Amino acid sequence: VEDEALIALELEDIAKGAGWSPLVASTYAAALALLEHASVDFALIDGTAGMSEEFAFARILAARGIRFSFCTGMAAALFPADFKTAPVIMKPYREGEIEEALKAARR
Predict the structure, then answer these.
(1) What is the b/e burial string over 62-71, where b = at least 16 CB atoms within 10 angstroms of the residue's CB?
(2) I need a labelling partner for 69 at 20 to 30 A (CA). Which of 37, 61, 92, 93 fits?
(3) Can you give the pTM of this predicted structure?
(4) How far apart are CA 21 and CA 41, in angstroms?
(5) How far is it, in rounded angstroms, from Cα 104 to Cα 107?
(6) Per-residue pLDDT for the chain (107 aa), expressed as one digit of tens each?
C-alpha cells in the first residue's frame, strides 16, 4: 500500500525485478479488496505518523498469516505495542533495502 504514485511505481519495479508479481494499492480500502480477490504472500505497508489504518491493515495481514514490512519515516517507538518489533524499512529507503525485505519474505 503506497499512496504516492511515483513511490508506488518504484516499488513495483523493484518487486518485478526481484521476481515478484506485485499488486499495487494506493488506499487501504483498495488493498483490502485485493486481499479478497488475489493471493498475497507479502506486503509493503506505507506508514504515516498519526494514522491508524496501516496498523489495522497489518493486523488483518497478520491474522491471515501474510508477512509484511512497514515502509515509513515514522519511528518504531510510535508504533502500537503489537508492532514495536515489526520489520521496518525507513524512508527514504534504498532499493537494496526493499530487495532484502523481498528476499526475506521468501525464506
Answers:
(1) eeeebbbbbb
(2) 37
(3) 0.90
(4) 10
(5) 5
(6) 998 999 999 999 999 999 999 999 999 999 999 999 999 999 999 987 557 889 999 999 999 999 999 999 888 888 899 998 899 999 899 999 999 999 999 98
